[in-house]
Amino acid sequence: MNTTAGILAGLLVAGAAVTVYRFARRQADQLRAAIDEMRGANPGAGDVIDFEKDPETGVFRPRA
Question: What residue ranges do the domains of the chain occupy?
């Protein structure tokens, strides 16, 4: 009986963990949708920043 109770308890804990995970994921999806709605339907692509490597210093600087 003790082994059966342990297995049952383990299954209950696993089921509870799955339930909590699904709940958290659903809440995160709702939050993500709200943020996307605030940003607008089409956020569009940002500007491309073009860099080139300075041969003397090896530092990347914006392309002139």
Answer: 2-62
